[in-house]
Structure to design on (370 residues):
């Protein structure tokens, strides 16, 4: 790494660390003051509270990482411009794009961090924090409710099977009271009633099971056994995605922020004939989640022309600029999500619209920078 790259990166990392640390401390203090009573009711100790915020902090980081990067970039670039360092560097034959190479590298790293947190950490935060809050409360019903989903209906339109499950364990994928029906090749509908079921290699095992054949609204006994294997294609991950997304569809929550990309795809693969409104909603959220990590890279494109303008400006201009940019980006993001959900815009365009507008705008302004 060249000496210039090390210098530029060092001047960025310091304000970036201050911004991240300041945002985190402010958020923890604010959240702790509002939830202090709940922590006391749950009998949480200081170590439990510390663990709680360590678990939930990545969800907050996903939201503030682009903002902190933008603020740090504007501060660093404005500071360089005030001391005429950018003018001197460019006079030495270094282009603005080459000068910004460490910033783009930092943006790519932050994008990777946001993607990893969104996909592999944030989706499980709700269950982890609930386990912490209830660990000192003796409530068997709450303990069971943590891992079990009651009265689950699951439809696999891809293979034409319907599942009715009395209880489903989201961790082990064990089922209590499952009922499955499907249409056999000969045109008759078949049913399986069982006490329990669990996944195995290549299918599902039903315990204490009875199989029936439905004909003219009557059930003809087929098979009764203590152990029945069926090569059904449904995977536990697909059922979990069904649970998460169905809950959000039923309560009309605007964004499935805790549903990973892979689970949205599982749901879409199991419901190829879903309603148009449901497909619009899911595809828009899918592209929104694919586009979200790249916000950090877009932030770099926005900050370069805003922060590198020559002149002895106050560094607090960067603060005001970052607030305006973040607010504008939020408006475009919400507008794109709404238009995509309604079907007015294609889902891919709705999800990527803010990144396209701000990224192309930043690249154009950077190319015109003097």
């Amino acid at each position: 790494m060249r000496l210039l790259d090390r210098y530029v990166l060092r001047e960025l990392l310091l304000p970036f660390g201050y911004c991240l640390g300041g945002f985190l401390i402010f958020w923890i203090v604010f959240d702790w003051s509002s939830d202090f009573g709940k922590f006391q009711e749950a009998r949480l100790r200081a170590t439990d509270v510390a663990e709680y915020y360590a678990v939930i902090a990545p969800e907050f980081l996903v939201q503030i990482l682009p903002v902190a990067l933008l603020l740090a970039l504007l501060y660093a670039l404005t500071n360089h411009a005030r001391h005429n360092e950018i003018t001197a560097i460019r006079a030495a034959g270094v282009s603005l794009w080459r000068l910004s190479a460490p910033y783009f590298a930092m943006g790519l790293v932050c994008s990777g961090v946001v993607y990893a947190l969104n996909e592999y950490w944030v989706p499980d935060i709700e269950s982890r924090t609930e386990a912490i809050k209830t660990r000192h409360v003796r409530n068997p019903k709450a303990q069971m409710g943590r891992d079990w989903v009651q009265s689950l209906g699951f439809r696999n339109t891809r293979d034409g099977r319907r599942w009715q499950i009395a209880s489903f364990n989201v961790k082990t994928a064990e089922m209590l009271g499952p009922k499955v029906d499907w249409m056999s090749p000969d045109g008759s509908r078949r049913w399986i009633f069982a006490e329990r079921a669990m996944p195995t290699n290549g299918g599902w095992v039903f315990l204490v099971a009875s199989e029936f054949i439905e004909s003219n609204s009557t059930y003809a006994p087929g098979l009764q056994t203590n152990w029945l294997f069926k090569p059904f294609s449904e995977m536990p991950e697909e059922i979990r995605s069904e649970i998460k997304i169905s809950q959000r569809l039923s309560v009309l929550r605007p964004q499935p922020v805790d549903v990973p990309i892979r689970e949205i795809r599982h749901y879409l693969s199991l419901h190829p004939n879903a309603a148009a409104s449901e497909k619009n909603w899911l595809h828009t959220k899918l592209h929104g989640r694919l586009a979200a990590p790249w916000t950090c890279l877009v932030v770099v494109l926005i900050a370069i022309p805003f922060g590198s303008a020559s002149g002895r400006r106050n560094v607090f201009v960067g603060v005001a600029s970052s607030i305006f940019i973040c607010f504008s980006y939020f408006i475009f993001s919400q507008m794109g999500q709404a238009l995509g959900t309604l079907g007015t815009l294609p889902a891919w365009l709705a999800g990527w619209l803010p990144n396209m507008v701000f990224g192309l705008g930043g690249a154009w302004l950077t190319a015109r920078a003097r």
